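BUG: 3D viewer hangs when loading the predicted structure for this chain

Environment: internal workstation, default settings.
Expected: structure renders.
Actual: progress bar stalls at 90%.

Input used:
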Amino acid sequence: METLRTAAAYLRVSDDRQDEYSPDSQLKLIQQYAKNNGYFVPKKYVFYDDGISGRSVKKRKAFNDMIAHAKSKDHPFDAILVWKFSRFARNQEESIIYKALLKRNNVSVISISESIDDSPFAPLIERNIEFFDEYYSTRLSQEVKRGMTEKATRGEAMCHPAFGYDIENKVYTPNNYEAPAVREIFTDYLNGVPMRQIAMKLNSKGYRTHRGNMFEARNIRYMLYNPVYVGKIRWSTEGRISAKRDWHNPNTMIVDGKHEPIIDNELWDKVQSKLGDGEKMYGKYQRSEQPVEWMLKGIMRCDCGSTLTHLSTKCPSMQCYRYTKGDICRVSHCISIAKANKIVIEALQECVRKAEFNITPREEQKSGIDYDALIKKERIKFDRAKEAYLSGIDTADEYKENKVYIQRTIDALEAEKAKEQAPPPVDMGAFSDKVQGVLDTITNPDISELAKNQALRSILTKIVFQKPQNNFALFFYV
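Structure tokens produced before the viewer hung:
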């Protein structure tokens, strides 16, 4: 009697396909193939990724678990059965690398619906199938983006309705219960009510977000930046801008929508102007709404990166926010506000005396490109190129050429990164005068703490309290 060989089954269903078999149907076909071809598929070796693209393996947990089993010392299965090669991967580069890796562990990848014989042309046929799968995936992505962009240009609804709206026939319609609250949010903010208090006010009236959660300051900020309330549709082909809160991305399109606005253009413009002033003064992640005002509010940082916050009115001192929450920071950075004020004033006086300032670009002056991530991605290509060479896929000359090309790309990225991080040219004499003007303001006992804070923000991006060295590092901007 012939001994059955053990095989794994890999199932994947993506959200963008309507012509795929269901996972149950795929498994049924795989099990029938296994039965007819001398394989046995145990339940524990059925791996399934649901609603995940095949263009990259990074987010496919089941796929990565399967590869880990195949590479393990006990080598539990001899083959991986898939409905189509496109279920294994739609990225031809990754497909080649993982199949080569599996081959070294004597594990084959078999498509049960794309029969390939053992002829010398079999690898070429398989590569052609993978090429067309990858081409289809790329074209599908482009067509989806094109369709969504076309939909946006027509002013149609692009996503679930924002608070204040329902959706009917693909058009947003004002919700009679929520729309008045939206108008109140914009009016309150313009009148100086902090976002946190606006959120608390909504919660006290029984309002909830469309996800059923209590309102927070971040929800209010999102709403104040959302042009849907003035009758616009916002869309970016780069993905969901709401995740990054990148409201000013130049690649974002804002067009007239088909829906009725909840607030008028005059109120919208005034609110956007106030928001812009706040961004310039406080930056992206700094809060201007803490209940107590003090000169260094929002400017002081722990060397872990977190902000130093006010402890209490009875204890006029600052402490690392992450330390108070028992988070990443394990070192207390508690310091009295009076002592911190004195150190900062003396440090500024010393900077003016020497005309030496540590000037760095502000976040909004940077391109927003994550050079470190791009460089890391190129270094990963080094490993892939090496693996392709060791697997016999690439020749020595091809490997050498790939290395040269990748290194040139890395060099160019590092040069751009250095250029962006380089301090801008500064007239030190004029800047010294500006800092001296700030010193005159913050040492004046008749000036309010809020005014002193605003004066410091006009020259400083942050002050880092380096506790181990008991040092304050001042970072200026122009």
